[in-house]
Amino acid sequence: MTLVGLVCVLFAMNGPLGAQITAVTAGTLIDPDTGTEKANQTILIDGEKIVTVGSDVQIPSDAKRIDLSHETVLPGLIDAHTHLLGTVDAKWDLGDFWIMAMQRRAGFRAIQGAEHAKEMLESGFTTVRDVGNSGDHLDTDLEKAIRFGVVPGPTMVFSGRIIAPFGGQFWDTPADARLLQNPEYLFADSRDEMQKAVRENIYWGARVIKIVVDAQRYTYSADDIRFIVAEAARAGAKVAAHVQTERGARAAIEAGVASIEHGWVLTDEDLALAKKNNVVLVSTDFTVEELIADGMEPDEAKQTHDRYVTRLKRAWAAGVEVVFGTDVMAEVNGRSRGEMAMGYVDSFREAGISPSDILRSMTIRAAALLDVNKVRGSIRAGMAADLVATPINPLRDIDGLKKINFVMKDGQVYRTP
């Protein structure tokens, strides 16, 4: 047998050469699927994958040991609505996407995106669904840099350029109409344009297609959206629909998108149809802190936040599947992107959602929406070794998620107590 053949056999038998066996001892292990916890569990990891989990696991003598016996361990968390490469600042960008797109150069946005990715990971988000506002496919580059280990960050499921009717989310007409033709959006009004836009994003690596339904007076119809959903499905991709009006929400729900993003105006009929059509709500219930950072006055921010929480409570009561997503794009001095995102847990708590259901929305339910549930979102044999730990059990106090002090992604430790 040649040397190359021998190496191939060894790789097939034992996985990557030199893969580290790691044993993580958890004082308490949470299973979000059942909402239960077990004491004194060991998670045995071979390289990037979990091998076995239990109370009587045989640990190899040469295994690396990680002692979390005084911590609560749970799966890595998922934020299903991020914009790692987008930052809209009320002071510098006037809260306007077009100004951001014009004045923030690609290189600067890429550097910011890498920092945001690191901050999200360190806060416990080991997977994100990044849904646009990424300039000229900078999300493709960031995902690759993370996957190749160039920069630390969560696993990214990204959308590429946002597809929208002419004008996208650019609300003010620029002085020169040619300035609308920048990489932030793909304007698509005809069926040919919609098809081309979907295919362009898929070519650049998108695993979800993001559309803006109703940011202008002209909106995508249910038939338009069905066409986009069908075209995306041919490439195995789901569709996430930004909706901000009742009209847009109804069209997206009727068309059978995978998720509606925001859904700030939803009637009882909309909610019933969403449940019937298995449409997920990614609710992005902005915190008061985020809204103020976006330029709102405190009183208006509080009223807006309360309105979003009321809508979340109604959606939950109606039985609609709700997945955690944040939409953080503002910068707040002294607060990381990950810390800002974790603050959205408060909105779920205010809506009366239990800690166990909040954890499901941030793990297994989110993983199913992102189509990564076969490898991420739970702690069991064969899954990616994505683990986080906190000294406060979040099943008893959901604020424990704000105290995460250990983060492992794909078997690699990024934060330790």
Please render the helix and strand layout as text:
Blueprint: H1 3-14, E1 21-31, E2 36-46, E3 49-54, E4 64-75, E5 77-82, H2 97-103, H3 106-122, E6 125-130, H4 138-147, E7 155-158, E8 162-164, E9 185-187, H5 191-203, E10 208-212, H6 222-234, E11 238-243, H7 246-255, E12 259-262, H8 268-276, E13 280-282, H9 288-293, H10 298-317, E14 322-323, H11 337-342, H12 345-350, H13 355-362, H14 364-369, E15 387-390, E16 406-409, E17 412-415
Parallel strand pairs: 1-4, 5-6, 6-7, 8-9, 10-11, 11-12, 12-13, 13-14
Antiparallel strand pairs: 1-2, 2-3, 4-15, 15-16, 16-17
Helix pairs in contact: 3-4, 5-6, 6-7
What does it look like?
The protein is α/β, with parallel strands linked by helices. It is 34% helix and 23% strand. The protein contains 14 helices and 17 strands. The chain has helices spanning 3-14, 97-103, 106-122, 138-147, 191-203, 222-234, 246-255, 268-276, 288-293, 298-317, 337-342, 345-350, 355-362, 364-369; strands at 21-31, 36-46, 49-54, 64-75, 77-82, 125-130, 155-158, 162-164, 185-187, 208-212, 238-243, 259-262, 280-282, 322-323, 387-390, 406-409, 412-415. It has a seven-stranded mixed β-sheet with strand order 3-2-1-4-15-16-17, with no helix packed on it. It is globular. Mean pLDDT is 92; it is low at 1-17.
